[in-house]
Design goal:
By secondary structure, the chain is of the alpha/beta class. The chain is built from 9 helices and 8 strands. It has a domain of 171 residues: Alpha/Beta hydrolase fold, catalytic domain (Rossmann fold), CATH 3.40.50.1820. The two termini are 30 Å apart.
């Protein structure tokens, strides 16, 4: 798996044409560790549906995923948040520094940049899209939208970070981003109703801000997998196609 540690200290993993070939459209994808996000099925299916196109796909390991088993990390996230340790904001800042550096080095075309994620990776991708205005499009699969209602974080008790890290606070920053979320119609892991609530509130906000046709989409499909939290290959393919369209690659 090609990787590179940048001057900012971030290790970036990537697939696609060699970096020396100049700036290209880019998709930054979060799921697990950087290598697993790009190579481990089924988590990497959005990536496999983009390979071979005129695009580079990048990933950065989610917090703690380089050093711990993926089954342990969710509880670690919950404990850190309960203890008031914000590890998400520094991660987002580091990811933005990585984007800045890759743009400066003519690796990423700043006018053709998208981001996406799976489950907690979608939560991270949404935060990054809100912080980085050069990101044109965001795709989320089985997206975590509210920490407090997810079964993975159900033991949290009114931790202040729950509100501070809420993506419901990011509506202003996301109003110009094209967004598409895919979720099962009965996902009891991250809660389908929570995802719908966020999409509805964001859509209303964008409309009230003067956009007659808000580019915010929610794709519901029959739930599959454990607690309805799975994503089908068809939806991964559809999301990858949508991202390529947003980046002008399907014209």
């Amino acid at each position: 798996m090609p990787n590179r540690t940048l001057k900012c200290g971030v290790t970036i993993y990537f697939k696609g044409l060699p970096l020396e070939m100049g700036p290209l459209p880019a998709f930054l994808y979060f799921s697990l560790s950087g290598p697993d996000s790009l190579s481990l099925e089924p988590y990497n299916l959005p990536v496999t549906n983009m390979e071979g196109d005129n695009i580079r796909i990048f990933s950065i390991s989610l917090p703690y995923h380089d050093d711990y088993d993926k089954r342990e990390v969710v509880s670690m996230w919950a404990h850190e948040i309960q203890d008031g340790k914000d590890f998400i904001t520094p991660f987002i800042e580091s990811a933005q520094q990585a984007i800045d550096e890759l743009i400066e080095e003519d690796v990423i075309d700043p006018d053709h940049l998208a981001v996406g994620g799976l489950s907690r990776g979608s939560f991270i991708a949404t935060h990054l899209a809100a912080r980085e205005p050069r990101i044109k499009a965001l795709v989320g699969f089985a997206p975590l939208t509210q920490l407090k209602v997810s079964t993975s974080f159900k033991e949290l008790h009114n931790a202040p970070l729950l509100e501070q890290l809420s993506i419901f606070r990011l509506k202003e920053q996301l109003k110009n981003t094209a967004i598409r979320y895919y979720i099962g119609n009965r996902d009891t892991m991250v809660q389908t109703t929570a995802c719908y609530e966020f999409v509805r509130e964001l859509t209303d906000f964008v409309y009230d801000s003067g956009t007659r046709s808000p580019q915010v989409e929610l794709i519901l499909s029959p739930s599959i997998g454990y607690k309805g939290h799975g994503t089908s290959q068809e939806k991964f393919e559809d999301g990858a196609h949508w991202i390529k369209t947003q980046l002008g690659l399907n014209l």
